[in-house]
Amino acid sequence: MTARLSLSTLDDLPADIARPGYDVAGQKIGIVHLGIGAFHRAHQAVYVDDRLAAGERDWAILGASLRSPDTRDALRPQDGLYTVLVRSSDAIRPRVIGSIRELLVAPDNPEALLKAMGDPNVRIVSLTVTEKGYCHDPATGQLREDHPDILHDLSFPLTPKSAPGVLVEALRRRREDGIAPFTVLCCDNLPSNGKTVRRVVSRFAELRDPDLGRFVAEEVAFPSTMVDRIVPATTDADRELVAERLGVTDSWPVSTEPFSQWVIEDHFPTGRPRFELAGAELVADVEPYEAMKLRLLNGSHSTLAYLGYLAGHETISDTMAAPAFVRLVRGLMDEEVTPTLRVPPGADLASYKNSLLARFENTALRHRTWQIAMDGSQKLPQRLLGTARDRLKAGAPIDRIALGVAAWMRYVTGKDEKGAEIDVRDPLAERLRSLANAAGPEASRLAPALLDVREIFGDDLPNDPRFTTPVQNALATLLSKGAAYAVEHVARM
Ligand code: CS2
């Protein structure tokens, strides 16, 4: 039987495999990370690994999951070690990461997590809990006070389930113990993510106790970040590749692309690792970077995901092999998104967009359209609808955005173009499906029914015919002629 990756097998790896060049067990926890999934492991944990290797020993990560024990169960027997596979078309480069030193699962023992977050040496609590993990209303960015997890955490604040509940209870205890609050570092793809999370978390604190609400709003730092690295779900082929190249097994490696970007608002009152020496950009204002990335990368991604899936493409690179899709994304970025952006200082938009197309075309990454299609109700507002609002304000057309939105509508009906089931994963999936079933297959009824979901579209867009008409027309084309035809047709404009 092949041995497993762990501290005791680290020295046996082939010489060409990159690995932690530091005393892994001798590092101290300085960051608690909530949401220890593949994205964190391929992104922030790699920057931290670089800083640990450079001698900043105080910043190792304790990774916690607020839901499933999978990652802990996979990584604990490996002493927290795992492999990042960096895939480009000509090479696959494995690197073993050592920055995750401890793993916890909150539902098993919420007290252990709260205790860890109370350690004075922990000065950052970072998060990748996905858009829906903040229990907010995506259209308004406000806490959903009727969310079941929020109701639970207000009734049982000492055993919280939600990210806001965990943060607030940990911050309350630190305050009571006279320990400075940690910095809350959101690494999810939300608009103005620091501000949004501050709003949601301080509202939750206020509901527990107005004075605690004031404390969180005024005395806790919530820097904004822009995070970027494409990280498809791990496959068994990734595991086999690791076993072949490393000579040991790794239960849960992660696969990613060579590109990585992290732009961070430099506001850490109690300190931070020198992330800038690991390639991150520390800036005063993250918002232009964030809008550029959410609207160009993620907006294109979601558009490609819904249309690509409907047209029968399994991955983003398969979708990009069809020239009409490339023209569509080009047009979306150049004609509809770019005019809405404030260009970040020093950024070169033209080469940024070219590099996005090249990244989407990377055939070494099998990034499934189905994976990106998940949780659309939480993603559309910041990826496509904000852009649509800016365009409408400027009196400009939105045909490509409308096609993306219509493709989402077609997708959430739950039946593909051949009549087969679509496994729609979304917190609103059931409601969307029953709205679609009640409306039936005519765009003139289906579009208004779905536009009426205010958590997604707000109160303005459903009442603006400059938005609703192109969406309904695009949906009619999708329903009668299919996605491949619709993409050809719009891309020709
Ligand atoms: C993707 C993102 O799954 C998705 O919704 O659009 O995860 C995307 O790959 C990352 O944001 C890239 O940085």
From TrEMBL:
Residue ranges of the Mannitol dehydrogenase C-terminal domain?
Answer: 285-478
Full protein name = Mannitol dehydrogenase family protein
Enzyme class, spelled out:
oxidoreductase
Catalytic activity, EC: 1.1.1.-
Q: Is the Oxidoreductase keyword given for this protein?
A: yes
Q: Which InterPro entries match?
A: 6-PGluconate_DH-like_C_sf (IPR008927), 6PGD_dom2 (IPR013328), Mannitol_DH (IPR000669), Mannitol_DH/Oxidoreductase (IPR050988), Mannitol_DH_C (IPR013118), Mannitol_DH_CS (IPR023027), Mannitol_DH_N (IPR013131), NAD(P)-bd_dom_sf (IPR036291)
Q: Which organism is it from?
A: Flaviflagellibacter deserti
Q: Which residues form a coiled coil?
A: none
| Keyword entries, A-Z | NAD, Oxidoreductase
Q: Which GO terms describe its molecular function?
A: oxidoreductase activity
